[in-house]
Amino acid sequence: MRKKVPLAWLQIAHAKVRFVVALAGIALACVLIFVQLGFQAALYDSSVKLHRVLRADIVLISPIARNLTAMNTIPRRRLYQALDTPGIATVGALYIENLTWRPPENPSVIQNSTVLGFDPAQPMFTLPSVNRKLTEVRLRDHLLFDQETKGNYPQFIEQLKQGKTITIEANRRRIDFVGLFNIGSSFGTDGYMVTSDLNFLRLFSNRQKANVNLGVITLRPGADAQVVKLALEEQLRQENDVRTLTYQEWVDWEKNYWQTGSSIGFIFGLGVVMGFVVGIIIVYQILYSDVSDHLKEYATLKAIGYQQSYLLKLIFQESLILASLAFIPSCIISEIVYGFCRSVTRLPLEMTWSRSALVFFLTIVMCIVSGAIAVQKLKSADPADVF
Fold it and tell me: What is the C-alpha to C-alpha distance for residues 305 and 290, in angstroms, rounded to an integer?
């Protein structure tokens, strides 16, 4: 009977409406987990978008800085002091400030972009679209615009692609966008703007050139970042207003803030747990109802010699079938949800094999746990109740 009769499949497929509802419920739980994991990954990936486009082996930041959107400042003279450290090739200053502005296509919308100011004589970006425009950003009130900024401005971006200049007003100044580049939005900003340090200081009149947000350091060929970092810390050991991080430490520092220092990371993690719990409840209700409806049949199987272990395997087989079949539509639906959210938020929401494998594993565990709870009902399947 075990080899010839697919009893687990016949039981769950017998009531077709219940079967479809069961798959829909499990798929919904899977989609919830997919979405929460997707936004969690997008949170961490988007938070280090700027890190990935900077030529930085070591960075200098404020000891009280929390993350990229709250960097505080350090004295610029610390950068000149760093040049005395062996192994350092270049040191550059990056100014960072948030700017609120209104797009000309839709003045009712308020955008929050992060303006990056640097000395064009010391290029620090790996983006060719920025490096080709170093001469333009030297000109007064000229900025480059991040075309991956959250929002929908097709005419705005198309005109810039055609080489036209777009003028807006922000901070009581008229500024001109003269080019495009790509970084993208994050949970901390709608997008970025790039300009020279002088234009930055004109746009933010309350800022001083002597105080910078980030010191960007590149090393000489063959220099070890960790060794140079220790030497730099020794060089600046008497100063308590600067912190030294290697590039990877800086990336980890940023991600760690969003993981543990902000409520957003906790919320997404809680969402994954809630999706898992909801899935367990749904599958449990399905399997429990199935066991209750067929309790006499299970008692009959016991009466003709089938062991309790066989009935347990039967329930677990049903769990695995439900998990496997519900996972497929959940992947398709999640990909659609990712695409929609990506187009609206400009966040890096992508379906990955590792995430799919993780959700499939969680789905299997979810269904097995539900089956383990539901099989407790089988203990009451007594042959004496049938005869």
Answer: 21
Report the distance separating Cα 89 and Cα 218, nearest Å.
6
Residues 293-352 pLDDT 10s? 777 777 777 777 777 777 778 888 888 888 888 899 999 999 999 999 888 888 888 888
Domain count, the chain: 2
Does residue 268 sit in the same domain as residue 361? yes
Cα 122 to the center of its chain, rounded Å: 31
Clarify whether residues 101 and 175 are in a common domain: yes
What gap in Å lies between CA 60 and CA 215, rounded to an integer? Answer: 5
Q: Indicate the average pLDDT of the chain.
A: 86
Query: Which residues form the domain of 14?
Result: 7-46+263-385
Nearest-angstrom CA–CA distance, 58 and 340: 37
DSSP string, 56-90: -SEEEE-TT--BTTB---EETHHHHHHTTSTTEEE
| Nearest C-alpha neighbor of 257 from the set 65, 76, 92 | 65
Cβ-based neighbours of 304, under 8 Å, separated by 6 or more: none
CB atoms within 10 A of CB 156: 20
269 in the same domain as 224 = no
The rounded distance, in Å, linking the Cα atoms of 232 and 290 is 68
Residue 244, helix vs strand vs coil:
strand
By the 10 Å C-beta count (0-12 exposed, 13-18 middle, 19+ buried), 210 is classed as: exposed
